[in-house]
UniProtKB/TrEMBL annotation, chain A:
Gene Ontology terms for molecular function: transmembrane transporter activity
Classification via Pfam families: BPD_transp_2 (PF02653)
Membrane topology listed for this record: Multi-pass membrane protein
Membrane spanning stretches: 6-27, 62-81, 148-168, 201-219, 231-252, 264-286
Similarity comment: family membership: Belongs to the binding-protein-dependent transport system permease family. LivHM subfamily.
InterPro entries listed in its UniProt record: ABC_transp_permease, ABC_UrtB_bac, BCAA_transport_permease
GO terms for biological process, alphabetical: amino acid transport
Name assigned to this protein: Urea ABC transporter permease subunit UrtB
GO-annotated cellular components: plasma membrane
Cellular compartment(s): Cell membrane
Keywords (A to Z) from UniProt: Amino-acid transport, Cell membrane, Membrane, Transmembrane, Transmembrane helix, Transport
Natural source organism: Pontibaca salina
TrEMBL record, chain B:
Gene3D superfamilies: P-loop containing nucleotide triphosphate hydrolases
InterPro entries noted in UniProt: AAA+_ATPase (IPR003593), ABC_transporter-like_ATP-bd (IPR003439), ABC_transptr_urea_ATP-bd_UrtE (IPR017780), BCAA_Transport_ATP-bd_LivF (IPR052156), P-loop_NTPase (IPR027417)
Name assigned to this protein: Urea ABC transporter ATP-binding subunit UrtE
Classification via PANTHER family: HIGH-AFFINITY BRANCHED-CHAIN AMINO ACID TRANSPORT ATP-BINDING PROTEIN, HIGH-AFFINITY BRANCHED-CHAIN AMINO ACID TRANSPORT ATP-BINDING PROTEIN LIVF
Any one GO MF annotation of this record: ATP binding
Length: 297, 231
C-alpha cells in the first residue's frame, strides 16, 4: 500500500509541474493553453536528443528542457496568445491549433519509432531517457522499498513549487503578475509593463512543463502525443484546486494524482480516470470556484 | 504641460471623444465638468492609453505620447485615482501603495513621506487588505498609490463620489493641499460644481465627447452651469 501511495505521489508530482504552469496562464492571465502538453513533449524530446547527441544525463537535461520549452512558450505568447487576451475561447482554439502543429511536426520528424524504423538523429525503437546511475535502485522506509528515481521526481516538483511560490509572493515580478490577474488596466496605469510580464509568466509556465517532460521520460516512452492527456488532467487540477491559488494547485494535484494511481492499482486505469472525472465534477458542483478559491468581495 | 489636440478615441467601434482639444497649465487644478455619460472618464482613460484606440496629438512635457503604451505614460509621470478607486482587494495597504512605485521615475518602490502626513490611518494599518477598507479609506489609498509614482500630473475621477460625508471634506482639502503645497498638477473630473469652483483654476465642460466651454473657474457663470450641467 505504501508503495502505491508513493507511486501516486510521483504521478502527482508530474501533474503538479504541469498544473503550476496552467495555474499561472489560466488562473492569472486568463489563457487556456491547450499546447501546454506539447511543451511537456518538447521537454521530453530535449532529454532524449541531448542524451543521444551530447551525452547529457537527466540532471543536465532538466535546465536544457526548461530553456527550450520556455523559449517555445515565449514564441507562442508573442506571436499568438498576445493578440488574444480577454478572448478566452479564442485562446483555446488557437493554442489547440498550435498543439496540433507541434505534435505533427515532431511526428513527421520522429514519429515512426514505434515501428522500429531507424530515424536519423533518434535511432530506432521506443525512446526513453536512461535514469542516471545515482537515481537507480531504491531505499527502504519501514520495510518498504521506495524507488529513488520517484523520490527524485517528487523532490524536483516540490522544489519547483517552492520556487514558484517564492516568485509569486516574494518578488516584484510576482507582485506585477498578481496585479495583472486582478486588474490588468490598473496594473498598467501603475506602471507595470503588462505585455512583458505576461510573456515572462507564460514562458516560465512552459519551462515547468518542459521539466515535467524530462522527468516523465524516466518512466514513460517518449512520443509525440505524450502530453495530450496531461493537459486535461492539469486543467482538472487547476479547476479543482481553485483558479489562481498555488496551494490549491498543490493540494489538488496530490489528491487527483493519488486517487488516480491508487484506483488504477486496485481496479484499472480506465476506471481510475473515470472515477477522477466523476470526483472532479462533484467537487465543482459543490464548490464551483474550487477548493482553495480566494475570498471574493 | 499636457496638451491634447484633435484627439479622437474609441471603444471598439464606438467613437467617444471627437476632435478633443485640451490644454493643462502646469501647477494648476483643471476641472473637467459635464453630465453623466459625456466622456469625462473616457478622457482620463484616453490620456493614459486605456481606451481601445486613439489618434491625434497628445503632448506631455513636449513629447507626443499618443501611441505609447500605458505603462510608459505612467512612468513618464501621469498617475490616476480612478473611478471606483480600483484598489487591489487582496493586496495589503502597503502592497497597494507600492504598486504605484512601478511608475516611479527612479524605479523606487517606497511609501512616500507625504502619505504619512496626509493619511496617518494608512500608515498605522499597513498590513490590512485593501479590500476591507471603507470607501473613504480606499480613496485615500488610491491617492497614496498614485503619489507613490511621484507623478507630474494626477488624474482624479470624481474623488468624492460615494464617500461618507464627513470624509468628503477631508479628501477635498487633501486635493487642494496637494496642489497648493506640493505644486502637483491635477486634472479633476467632478460632478460637484461647488468643489470644482473652490479648487480649480480652469475648467472645461464636455458634451457628447467634445469640449463645449472652458476658461477660468472664476468666470464660470450660473448661466453656463444651467446650460450644460443641470439635469
Amino acid at each position: 500500500m505504501i508503495e502505491s501511495v508513493f507511486l501516486g505521489l510521483s504521478v502527482a508530482s508530474i501533474l503538479l509541474l504541469i498544473a503550476l504552469g496552467l495555474a499561472i496562464t489560466y488562473g492569472a492571465m486568463g489563457i487556456i493553453n491547450m499546447a501546454h502538453g506539447e511543451l511537456l513533449m518538447i521537454g521530453a524530446y530535449c532529454a532524449v536528443l541531448t542524451r543521444i547527441h551530447l551525452g547529457f544525463d537527466m540532471f543536465m537535461a532538466l535546465p536544457v528542457a526548461f530553456v527550450m520549452a520556455g523559449a517555445t512558450g515565449a514564441l507562442i505568447e508573442v506571436f499568438i496568445v498576445r493578440r488574444l487576451y480577454n478572448r478566452l475561447l479564442d485562446t483555446l482554439l488557437a493554442t489547440w491549433g498550435v498543439a496540433i502543429v507541434l505534435q505533427q511536426a515532431i511526428r513527421l520528424e520522429f514519429g515512426l519509432v514505434f515501428f522500429g524504423i531507424h530515424i536519423p538523429g533518434l535511432g530506432s525503437g521506443l525512446q526513453n531517457t536512461g535514469i542516471p546511475q545515482v537515481l537507480q535502485g531504491s531505499w527502504q522506509v519501514a520495510g518498504t522499498n521506495l524507488p529513488i528515481f520517484r523520490t527524485f521526481v517528487i523532490g524536483i516538483a516540490l522544489i519547483m513549487f517552492a520556487v514558484t511560490w517564492w516568485i509569486y509572493y516574494r518578488t516584484s515580478l510576482g507582485t506585477q503578475l498578481r496585479a495583472i490577474a486582478r486588474n490588468a488596466k490598473m496594473a498598467a496605469a501603475c506602471g507595470v509593463n503588462v505585455k512583458r510580464i505576461n510573456t515572462i509568466a507564460f514562458s516560465y509556465g512552459a519551462g515547468l512543463a518542459g521539466m515535467a517532460g524530462v522527468l516523465l521520460s524516466g518512466f514513460e516512452s517518449v512520443k509525440p502525443d505524450m502530453g495530450s492527456s496531461f493537459v486535461i488532467n492539469g486543467f482538472l487540477v487547476v479547476v479543482t484546486g481553485g483558479v489562481s491559488s498555488l496551494f490549491g494547485t498543490l493540494f489538488a494535484s496530490g489528491l487527483l494524482g493519488e486517487a488516480r494511481a491508487v484506483l488504477a492499482i486496485i481496479y484499472n486505469d480506465v476506471l481510475a480516470q473515470a472515477a477522477v472525472f466523476a470526483g472532479v465534477i462533484l467537487i465543482i458542483l459543490v464548490r464551483p470556484s474550487g477548493l482553495f478559491s480566494p475570498k471574493q468581495r | 504641460m499636457l496638451d491634447l489636440s484633435n484627439v479622437n478615441t474609441f471603444y471598439g467601434k464606438s467613437h467617444i471623444l471627437h476632435n478633443f482639444e485640451l490644454s493643462i497649465e502646469p501647477g494648476t487644478i483643471h476641472a473637467i465638468l459635464g453630465r453623466n455619460g459625456v466622456g469625462k472618464t473616457t478622457l482620463l482613460s484616453c490620456i493614459l492609453g486605456l481606451t481601445d484606440r486613439s489618434d491625434g496629438t497628445m503632448s506631455f512635457n513636449g513629447r507626443d505620447i499618443i501611441s505609447t503604451a500605458t505603462h510608459e505614460r505612467a512612468r513618464a509621470g501621469i498617475s490616476i485615482v480612478p473611478q471606483g478607486r480600483q484598489i487591489f482587494p487582496d493586496f495589503s495597504i502597503k502592497e497597494n501603495i507600492l504598486m504605484g512605485g512601478f511608475a516611479h521615475p527612479d524605479g523606487k518602490r517606497q511609501v512616500p513621506d507625504i502619505v504619512s502626513e496626509l493619511f496617518p490611518y494608512l500608515i498605522d494599518n499597513m498590513s490590512r487588505p485593501g479590500g476591507l477598507l471603507s470607501g473613504g479609506q480606499q480613496q485615500q489609498l488610491a491617492i497614496a498609490r498614485a503619489l507613490a509614482a511621484a507623478p507630474k500630473v494626477l488624474l482624479m475621477d470624481e474623488p468624492t463620489e460615494g464617500i461618507q460625508p464627513n470624509i468628503v471634506e477631508q479628501i477635498e482639502n487633501t486635493i487642494i493641499r496637494l496642489n497648493s503645497e506640493f505644486g502637483l498638477t491635477i486634472l479633476l473630473v467632478e460632478q460637484n460644481i461647488k468643489f470644482a469652483r473652490r479648487a480649480a483654476k480652469n475648467y472645461t465642460i464636455i458634451e457628447k465627447g467634445c469640449p463645449v466651454d472652458g476658461g477660468l473657474c472664476r468666470d464660470l457663470t450660473d448661466n453656463t452651469i444651467h446650460k450644460y450641467l443641470s439635469v
